[in-house]
Structures are given as structure tokens and as C-alpha cells.
Amino acid sequence: MNHFDFSVIAQAWPFLLDGLVFSLKLTAVGFLGGLVLGIGLALVRHLEVPVASQLASAYVTLIRSVPLIMVLFWFFFLMPLVLMWMTGASRPVQIGPVWTAFVTFTLFEAAYYAEIIRAGFKSMAKGQYGACKALGMSTWQTYRLIILPQVLRVVSPILLTQTIILFQDTSLVYVLSVTDLLGAASKIAQRDGRLVEMYLAVAVIYMVLSSLTSQLVAILKNRYAVPGRR
Amino acid sequence: MFEVLFETVQDGEELYLAWLLNGLGWTVALALAGWCVAFVLGVLVGCGRTSSNRAIALAARLYVEVFRNIPIIVQMFLWYFVLPELLPPDLGSAMKKMVPPWGAFFPALIALSLYTGARVAEQVKAGIEALPYGQRSAARALGMTELELYRTVLLPQALRIIMPTLTSEVMGIFKNTSVALTIGLLELTAQARQINEFTFKTFQAFGAATILYLLLALSVYAVMHGLEKRLRTPGTEPTITRRRLFPMRKEAAKP
Hints:
heterodimer; A: mainly alpha; MetI-like fold; about 80% helix
């Protein structure tokens, strides 16, 4: 009690910043990879491709029912075995917690983004598909030129909100002892016995960043809303 | 398929299955207790967000900003590691000496309730704002107090509107209980990890826990869907909209 020393935060700052950079990298990879895969999953379901559609649906339901920590553990233990099988190696291929985190977040977020994008597909006026067909467009052209650009614009506020949640969720890589922002803080907290200062600092950093970005999303949403929709 | 669950643990009589079910029990207990607090809190703060009283609206907004924007794991650390240091010494050490698992259960419960409460509040607010403003005016014209207005007019309608998103919040709190393993609560995921560490039967341990999580999600959905049907105002049944197992995580727009 009564002997807080907030100078430890200043001393630890470079280390915390490295951690924060890793958290942001993980968020960026999860966002981009998740978006690409998510669009794929949503397309397969929306086009009702036989078998693939059911598989995609099962995947999305499974991932969304299980806690992220559980998924992290799954991949941490499974990836080495899958890689062994794929490369034909004689023993499990260790990829380490950092790569596990990148792969897990990409595959995990894909399930969440897929549901958001699929709802976007459903919200498109039916006539657009018919109009594309009447103009002789192929399915690929229809989606790439007409449907996807509109869908992404309509769902972007929800996608971005989900990405802010993703940024907060990256802190869960703590369970794999990865040095993200929280991991860095907790390592210093335990080394120096400064739990109060370090955890409060981390809480403030997360809060300020998430809060500011969600204000930004709200502003963008109003500015770039499609005229005539809602 | 899950043979390992029916083996006895290394230095004891019980089966590994007992560990897993024990973990399931703590997961359910934490989620249900957390939901009760979060729901009450969420409704109160959600009403506060729409209040015409500036001070109340600002306080409610601050609460939401703080508790929704800090990751749940950091919030748990704050209640578990930081709070005992900030309290008077005897109270702080009493907290640290609490018998397990309560020493981890209560901080986890506080964190989950406040976090989920903030998310519920935003949905309650969105539900109230979806109602025509004329209802407020009409209630005032009838001489209703603010409390009567919320209790008898706005909330009964708003809560029905947001039932689908509330369902996904309940599912969310069940999933978020797994974060409590970081402060030492042996809930479902922690027990699965422990069985894996003792037996190296990764697929069986995590597979069984995953199936239990799936069953939990299905039960939550069944209960909430049943509740929604029962509570529906007669004559307002949706005609063609198909229900989805997982409603989208949609957050209310910020002002």
C-alpha cells in the first residue's frame, strides 16, 4: 500500500511498446487473413455449393460455440501433428506459440467475419442478381464487380467493431506465454513485483485504444453510409 | 472414443471424467451467476444511457466505455491481482487468503458480470431507442413518473426486441468463463488441459470438452428461444424471417 511507483511504467515502456506492436500485428494478420477466408466461407454458403456449404456451416458453428482459449489450445497441440502429416516428417513439427497465435486468430476470426458477410449477402436486393444474369455476367464477375463491393461497404461498421473485439481478444495469447502487450506487462510485473502499476497501465492502454477506434468507426459509419440505406 | 475419461486419475480413486464434470460445474455456475448480475446491471445502465438526466446518462456512458473496452482477461487480473493491493491491508490479505476455488471464483465473477453488463447495457439502450419517441411523450402526458415509464412501457417492449442479441450474450458469457483459468479457476477448459498434461491424450481431453461446450451452446439457444416464444406479444409473431442459431454480434451505434 501507498508506495506506488509509476516510474516503473516509464522504464518498462520500450518493452511494453514491443508487446503492443506484436498485439497490433496479430490483429492485422487476423483481420486480413480472417477477411479473405471469411469471404470465401460466406460465398460457399451463399452459393450453396454442395458439400462445401455444409462443411463451411459446420466449421462456423463449431468455432463460434467454443471459447477462443480452447481453440488456441487445439491449434497449439494439433498444428504440429497436422504439419507432420502434411510434410511427411517422422516427428511432430513444432511451430511455436507465436505462429500458433497467427494461424489460430486467422482461422477463428474467419468464422465470425463469415457470418457478418453472409448477412450482408442476404441484405442485397434480389433483383441485382437477376440484373447481372440478364447482362450476361459470370458468377465471378457478379460477385467481384457488383455484389462484394456493396456488401463490404454495408457491413464495414460491423466488421470494424468485430475487429476491435479481435484486438481485445489478442490478449488471450497470454495462455501460450506469448509476449504481446499483456504478456510483456505481466513479465515485468512478476520480475519487479509491480503488479498494480503494470496491470493498471495495460488496462488504460487497451481502454484508450479501443475507445478511440470505436468512436472513429462511429464517425466513419455516418460519413460513408450508403445514401438511401437506413 | 473417450476411453481416457474412464481411467482413474494418477494418484486417486476418481475417474478423469469426474475432473471434467467438476470443471463443467464451475463453468456453468460462473456463467449463470455472472449472467444474473450482468442482466440486472445491464438493464439498469441501459436505462441510464437513455435517461434525460444528463448526469445519469454520462455516468452510464462512462461505465460502458470503461468495462467494454478493457479485455476481459485484463479485467480479471485487475480484480484478482490489483484489488487486494489497493484495499486496506487486512481486507486485502483476507481476499488473498480466501479458500480455493472461491479466491479465483469471486474476482472472475465480478469481472465477467461487469464486462457482460456493459455489453448488455448497449443492447438495452438500442432496444429502447428502437421504440417510437411518442411513447415517452404519451406516458408523460398520462402523468407517469420516469420509473413507471421505463418499468411498464419501455422495458417490456425493448427487452422483447433484443432477445436475439441477448441470446448471443448468454452464449458469450459461457465462453468467456474459460478466461478464469488464467487466475487459477479449474473450469472446463482448465480441466481439459490438466487431463491432457497428465495423460497426453490431447484429442480425447480437448474433444470431450469441445463437445460439452457445443452442448452448452445448444442448451442456451434452446432455453432462450423457448423463452422468446413464450414471452412474445400475441399477434407479433414474425412471419417469414428464419431464425439463425447465432445472431450477429451487432453493437449499437454510438452517438
